[in-house]
Specification:
The protein is an alpha+beta fold. It contains four helices and ten strands; from the N terminus they run αβββαβαβββαβββ. The chain has helices spanning 3-25, 113-125, 143-148, 215-221, and strands at residues 62-65, 86-94, 100-109, 132-133, 151-152, 174-176, 184-185, 226-227, 235-236, 239-241. The chain has a three-stranded antiparallel sheet with strand order 1-2-3, with helices on one face. It has a three-stranded antiparallel sheet with strand order 6-10-8, covered by helices on one side. The chain is globular, with a radius of gyration of 38 Å.
Length: 245
């Protein structure tokens, strides 16, 4: 046989031997008795970290002048207080959903801004829940519709309920708080708003219900304001005013 053929055959045999040797060693070690090795999976970062809760906003109130446009439904010429003597307090409040809400607006007499800011700061610290807080102009000046929406409000140039004289709301010196949970009750026990009738039972402990001597009543008493829940005959559980009426 020619030399070049012998070399070629020898090289081919050697190549086959190497291939068989490599095949026999795939997935095996030289000193583990041939046990199969299992690759270690890469480490995956955990995604179960506890989220950091967002802190509620601090209570900060801003007092701003009002405009005729802001109060186009609730103020008119002939009202007992001029626009120049009214202010809007913008502040956060705790909602019925247990969350802090920004953008609450309460229109009040300029002289009451300091005391009322103090009161609502206390209510915020207590996390006392308020359904909503916006000027009655959001309801085109309708006290009835504002109550239906369970809206906490203050200024509204209107007559006293059931009378002809000016209400304390006409001076920006009265606030109605959660008016559905704290309804106006006639001397015969009648309540106008059907969804609020159940709150004629003052033993209820629903969120937002005000009771005699509680922290809400005390907060207003701290600035010298009286509560309609203390009236004889008619009860106005939502109502707080500088004169007590």
């Amino acid at each position: 046989m020619p030399v070049d053929m012998l070399v070629s055959r020898s090289l081919g045999v050697a190549a086959i031997g190497v291939a068989l040797s490599l095949a026999a060693g795939c997935g095996q070690g030289g000193d583990d008795g041939g046990a199969k090795r299992t690759a270690t999976p890469p480490t995956v970062a955990s995604s179960t970290a506890t989220p950091v809760p967002t802190a509620p906003p601090r209570f900060q109130a801003q007092v701003k002048p009002v405009t005729a446009q802001l109060l186009k439904h609730s103020w008119r010429k002939g009202c007992p207080v001029p626009l120049a003597d009214l202010r809007v307090i913008e502040m956060p409040y705790w909602g019925m959903d247990g969350k802090a809400h920004t953008g609450g607006r309460l229109v009040v007499n300029a002289e009451a801004t300091g005391p009322l800011t103090k009161v609502f700061g206390k209510l915020y610290a207590l996390r006392y829940p308020i359904r909503r807080m916006e000027p009655v102009d959001a309801y085109k000046g309708s006290d009835y519709d504002s109550i239906e929406a369970d809206n906490t409000s203050a200024f509204n140039c209107r007559a006293v309920t059931g009378g002809t004289g000016w209400s304390r709301h006409s001076y920006g010196l009265a606030v109605d708080v959660n008016p559905c949970e704290n309804p106006y009750v006639d001397s015969d026990g009648h309540i106008d708003h059907k969804d609020c009738v159940k709150f004629g039972d003052r033993k209820r402990r629903d969120p937002g219900v005000i009771h005699a001597g509680d922290k809400v009543v005390k907060a207003f008493a701290g600035i010298g304001w009286g509560w309609g829940g203390d009236w004889n005959g008619i009860k106005d559980y939502q109502h707080f005013s500088s004169s007590g009426r």
